[in-house]
Amino acid sequence: MTPPTKMxxxxxxxxxxxxxRRGSLKTVSYIVILVVLLFIANYIFGWASPxxxxxxxxxxxxxxxxxxxxxxxxxxxxxxVFGYLIANAISGxxxxxxxxxxxxxxxxxxxxxxxxxGIAILLVVLTSVLNVNxxxxxxxGSFGGLVVGFATQTVLSHVVAGVFLSISRPFxxxxxVTISGQTGVVKDIRLMHVVLETTDGKxxxxxxxxxxxxxxxxxxxxxxxKND
Length: 228
Description:
about 230 residues; alpha+beta; SH3 type barrels; 2 domains; five-stranded antiparallel beta sheet; 7 helices; 5 strands; about 65% helix; elongated; disordered C terminus
């Protein structure tokens, strides 16, 4: 008979896999709908003169010719709406996947970064669709790059530091260490944080990985631990 705790973990894994499938299906659906709507808009309003309008659309030729000059704005509106939905769907998909391998704060932070990157890409695409002059497009692209850079700078520094700590292992699980004036037992080493538990077991202390790398670490020796 399967233990309840193991059954619960299996169910959680199944739920996350189902969430990933749903997120993937949602993303693909948004992309397909966007492509279809762009095709339909181009087919209906993409005629520059009444003579080129297909026979079955001739009764609406005056409306089509009137709307045709604004076709780029229709494209832009569709791309903006569905692009935003796609960016949200992908960021949610990234979060669901990362929750299998890391903690909630790290996954949520990377989800936010993914959404910001998606919106920055969306702005660049919109400038291209609207035939904005190259200098304006460059300005938008530079602005998007700055936003992404500022948003990811601190997070990436902590992630890189977390990877470094995982590889170098300056301390292990169960060691008693003092970092930035905080003393506790090493409970977990995550990408974004090192988790210390106070010696009385009542509190957890989360120290950003980037801070840990930059600080002097005091580690109690094993014989001192045994004497205590």
